[in-house]
Amino acid sequence: MTPDLSLVPGSLTPDSRPAPRWRRVLSQARFDATVWLANGEQLLLTLVLPALVMVGLTRWLPLDLGPGATIDVVTPGVLALAVMSTAFTGQAIGTAFDRRQGALRLLSTTPLGPDGLALGRVLAVVVVEAVQAVVLGGLGLALGWRPDPVGCLVGAAVLVLGTAAFVALGLLLAGTLRSEAVLAAANLVWVLLLVGGGVVVPASRLGGFGPVAAALPSGALGTAARTAFQDGRLDLAAVGVLLVWTLLALAALRRWFRWD
Asked: Which of 247, 69, 250, 233 is CA-nearest to residue 158?
């Protein structure tokens, strides 16, 4: 006698169908974003440290960062730093450990599929970045930041492009190195780019290293964000640098990324 599997809770029957693709992607994005926002270490990286950088550079250790009020220079850079924290460092570390534990390979073989998994993770990054923008932008406004109204729209587009570039770079790192190496490398790169990558401190204030910083994705994102939020315009040169890094990272990702 064949058992009636329909009586078993949670079992699949011949008539079972996976949820629509968009629902599977949104479910994955909701799961990833919830885990991210509930993780104390991730919150330290994505919210607390950028906030400390903003307050430190405007209140505790004011520096000459160029024309305009310091807060108007620092806040766009901190928003760019937050993108880098979430899209690159957090994404690289989380994906690397999922890969080590076999979760990445398992999820890629479900109805979600590799493309759905990647899209869900990108949407989760966008959700986290929206929270960052509200919190850090609100802190900036409280400290006296007055962005250009049109520049807010331009700046949002720049941050989206920066997200694409850094997600691709983070996944490339996560898919090619061992998880322990990714943990060390991702954190080290974050610190180095914060100090000398032109993301918070403008590349023009870094002396002889300035041209190198401007050619990095961090420097390009910082420059484009400051130009957008301060002047309400698009820095085409910086955007071009970001596009090149994005395309190169995506090409390398397709070539070298490993699921296990």
From this structure: 233
Q: Can you spell out the DSSP letters for 53-76?
A: HHHIIIIIS----SSS-HHHHHHH
pLDDT digits (tens, 9 = 90+) for 120-131: 888 989 999 999
Please state the domain extents for the chain: 20-256
Confidence band for 97, pLDDT divided at 50, 70 and 90: confident
- Between 37-51, 74-88, 134-148, the lowest mean confidence (pLDDT) is in 37-51
Q: Is 18 left (phi over 0), alpha (psi -120 to 50) or beta?
A: beta
CA 216 to chain CA centroid, Å, is 16
Cα 86 to Cα 111, 127, 187, 189, 255: the distances in Å are 26, 10, 12, 13, 24
Handedness of CA 131, 75, 202, 161 (dihedral sign): positive
